[in-house]
Amino acid sequence: MIRVLVADDEPLIRAGIRMILTSADDIDVVAEAGDGREAVEKARGGGVDVALLDIQMPVMNGLTALVELGRAAPKVRVLILTTFGDRDNVLRTLGHGGAGFLLKDSAPDELIQAVRAAAAGNAYLSPAATRHVADVLSAAGATTGGEAARRRLDGLTTREREVLALLGEGLSNADAGRRLHMSEATVKTYVSRILTKLDCDNRVQAALLARDARLQPGRLQPGGH
């Protein structure tokens, strides 16, 4: 079982998250907290695999709690859940070692998927967050460069390019699967293979490469050639 701690200052929100997560056979909500400090204290004692933290909480906010958990309980994987999907929060979450970032309007199955990904040691960004970060980094010029990106894609198969193009659009595995008439599990396998071949740590880096190379669905050669 994946043991989860849920931290949010609104009891109704915590109850809703608990209901969603415990509907999965492999997830158990073992602790709840109303603020970041309480979350750190409860996770410090062990018995928690994944902490799901709201950003806006009293006493200690979610991002500060993320940093504190890195010191007090480094084995706990932290997901940030919030209504505030701005650039700084996403980048700070990843910069401080967070396992992922979701918006509170994410679908229930996405929340479950994120917890599973975090428990498995993988980073997770909601499709909306992936698109946002990729847009911001591209606009800021934090990119590989078109020609260099195209060279990095040389070792990909046609199907891998199709999947990568959809990552560049910020699609989830499930949405990409529907677009390509593939199962979600198959897409997940392709994504793992793509990240390995491109030496990318996460989907955001892969999405940036797809954008730098101007890889578009239906136009599988970089730049549309």
UniProtKB/TrEMBL annotation:
It comes from the Bacteria. Pfam families: GerE, Response_reg. The modification 4-aspartylphosphate is found at D54. InterPro entries: CheY-like_superfamily, NreC/VraR/RcsB-like_REC, Sig_transdc_resp-reg_C-effctor, Sig_transdc_resp-reg_receiver, Tscrpt_reg_LuxR_C, WalR-like. Residues 149-214 form the HTH luxR-type domain. CDD domains: LuxR_C_like, REC_NarL-like. SMART domains: HTH_LUXR, REC. PROSITE patterns: HTH_LUXR_2 (PS50043), RESPONSE_REGULATORY (PS50110). The keyword Transcription applies. Residues 3-119 form the Response regulatory domain. This is Response regulator transcription factor. It comes from Streptomyces cyaneofuscatus.
